[in-house]
Structure formats: structure tokens, C-alpha cells
Specification:
The chain has a four-stranded antiparallel β-sheet with strand order 1-2-3-4, with no helix packed on it. Strands 5-6-7-8 form a four-stranded antiparallel β-sheet, with no helix packed on it. Helices cover 0% and strands 46% of the residues. It is built from no helices and eleven strands. It has a single domain, classed as Lipocalin (Beta Barrel). By secondary structure, it is mainly β. The radius of gyration is 15 Å and the shape is globular.
Length: 135
């Protein structure tokens, strides 16, 4: 078997962290190292069309965005946990935890979110039922 190179995207080192989601989209973390601004970019699989781009005033620190109930969950080193709508990147809710948020997971039925901080804390987090901020 041999693969075929189709296209590429030039990213500043260390590049991007990619999560493949759905049947039609890539979600890529990019970072401007000089300004420490982070971006979450949604593209098609061919990297030929940017569907949407969401900017953060600090780079997201979670290993990759976590897909959860039509949202992408992302965290940063200021302890901010953000939920962005998967279809257009619009912010849906945000909350503040302690620590540099590095990993995000869910339980088997997807109702509970678990957030791991670099400092060693693991949070069991119940997200808001609708828009808004609750824990």
C-alpha cells in the first residue's frame, strides 16, 4: 500500500495540534509564539477552506479540543475552560478553574466532564445545562 500526498498547510513551529472530527472538518490549534495568541481553526479535510477561526488572548493549553455535545471544549493556563459551537466557533459558555488546563475528557454517557490541570488537580465538572456559567 502506498499513500498519496494531497495538500499541506504551513504552520509556525511547533505547528498545530490537530483533532479530526465529524466527517468533514479538522480542528487545529495554532499559536503565534511572539504574541502568545492562540487560534482554533476549523478547515475542510483538504485544508483548502477555512470554515471558521476563533482567537484567544492566550494560547490554549489543552492537548487538543474535546468534542462534546456539538461543542469544542478548550482550556488555557489561566484556568479558563471554554465551550465553542462546533458549527461556527461561537462561544457558548466559559468557566474559571484553577491551574493550567491540559486535558479534557468525558464519562461514558458524556454528561460529566473531567479536566486535568498541569499542577496535578483533576476536576469533575458539570457543565451548564444551557448558556451561562455554572459548576
Amino acid at each position: 500500500m502506498t499513500g498519496k500526498f494531497k495538500t499541506s498547510c504551513r504552520c509556525q513551529p511547533p505547528g498545530g495540534r490537530i483533532l479530526v472530527a465529524e466527517d468533514s472538518a479538522l480542528y487545529i490549534f495554532l499559536e503565534d509564539h511572539q504574541s502568545r495568541v492562540g487560534y482554533l481553526v476549523s478547515t475542510d479535510f483538504n485544508l483548502s477552506h477555512v470554515r471558521w477561526k476563533q482567537k484567544s488572548d492566550r494560547a490554549w493549553s489543552s492537548e487538543w479540543p474535546r468534542i462534546w455535545h456539538g461543542l469544542l471544549l478548550v482550556g488555557n493556563c489561566r484556568g479558563e475552560l471554554d465551550a465553542l459551537r462546533i458549527s461556527d466557533g461561537a462561544p457558548q459558555w466559559s468557566d474559571k478553574l484553577k491551574g493550567c488546563l491540559r486535558s479534557i475528557g468525558t464519562d461514558g454517557d458524556g454528561e460529566q466532564i473531567y479536566v486535568g490541570a498541569q499542577e496535578g488537580t483533576v476536576y469533575a465538572y458539570s457543565p451548564p445545562a444551557n448558556s451561562g456559567t455554572t459548576k
